[in-house]
């Protein structure tokens, strides 16, 4: 492609630009003056729309990025001597540079196993019971990633199973929903069925990967846990002085359902890419995509050849294979072009 029309990449949905609905709402908010620090009409409207989406009264806070959203939410649920249980491939463990521990003043992250990037509910019991002495950080929170780092999604009954084991052990439940929209679109269920009705106390609802420039919503379904959370946001540099520009894109995404349409399209492109690669001899696909990513094992010389042709993708995420991530703006021509290059390079071996 030309410099004026650069290739859409498969490395991350962070590569994509702002989708039209978010951009138009951002532009609409850029007229005249409005109160700062979240006292504006855009922030109020965005918060109400989040409550409408989840069909419940909840406390909503807006943060700049997922690392801050997750870390601050987890810090609100823990004391420094507690621990957070998450899957061994969870983003809060592998890709946040110790931020959950930092913002919680030392709360330890402990990993638990499970197939396909999902926590095994029985592992929660094991981690809680393995030690209860004062020398060990006491488990306090279970953190789920939805969709997971391996591209799978927790179905409602799976979230409930984790929620039930957490409740039985006196633990709170946090959900890292950086790609929550993709999970909802994939499952076709009401958002409440994956969150508060299944036992989730707080959700970090991802906006950036869904098509916004920046911004995540921290949603407390248990409002008692949100006490003084605004102070945590301020102290961590997450209280936007011009909050309307963080909140307005949410209005654009939620009002007309663009958040689900855009996520559904990204999921569809991942399924298309999976179909195309499944016809290429020698390519091993690691699992059927449930959200917007495809994991494939590519021979080193093929992977190198793709990089040399200008394709960007990661090969160090979630324990193996190359991750190919589709975005809200991925087009069929993009995945067809990638698959064609894979096929040609494989034929040269």
From TrEMBL:
<dbReference type="InterPro" id="IPR015421">
    <property type="entry name" value="PyrdxlP-dep_Trfase_major"/>
</dbReference>
<protein>
    <recommendedName>
        <fullName>L-threonine aldolase</fullName>
        <ecNumber>4.1.2.48</ecNumber>
    </recommendedName>
</protein>
<dbReference type="InterPro" id="IPR001597">
    <property type="entry name" value="ArAA_b-elim_lyase/Thr_aldolase"/>
</dbReference>
<dbReference type="InterPro" id="IPR015422">
    <property type="entry name" value="PyrdxlP-dep_Trfase_small"/>
</dbReference>
<keyword id="KW-0456">Lyase</keyword>
<comment type="similarity">
    <text>Belongs to the threonine aldolase family.</text>
</comment>
<feature type="domain" description="Aromatic amino acid beta-eliminating lyase/threonine aldolase">
    <location>
        <begin position="9"/>
        <end position="296"/>
    </location>
</feature>
<comment type="function">
    <text>Catalyzes the cleavage of L-allo-threonine and L-threonine to glycine and acetaldehyde.</text>
</comment>
<dbReference type="InterPro" id="IPR015424">
    <property type="entry name" value="PyrdxlP-dep_Trfase"/>
</dbReference>
<keyword id="KW-0663">Pyridoxal phosphate</keyword>
<dbReference type="InterPro" id="IPR026273">
    <property type="entry name" value="Low_specificity_L-TA_bact"/>
</dbReference>
<dbReference type="Pfam" id="PF01212">
    <property type="entry name" value="Beta_elim_lyase"/>
</dbReference>
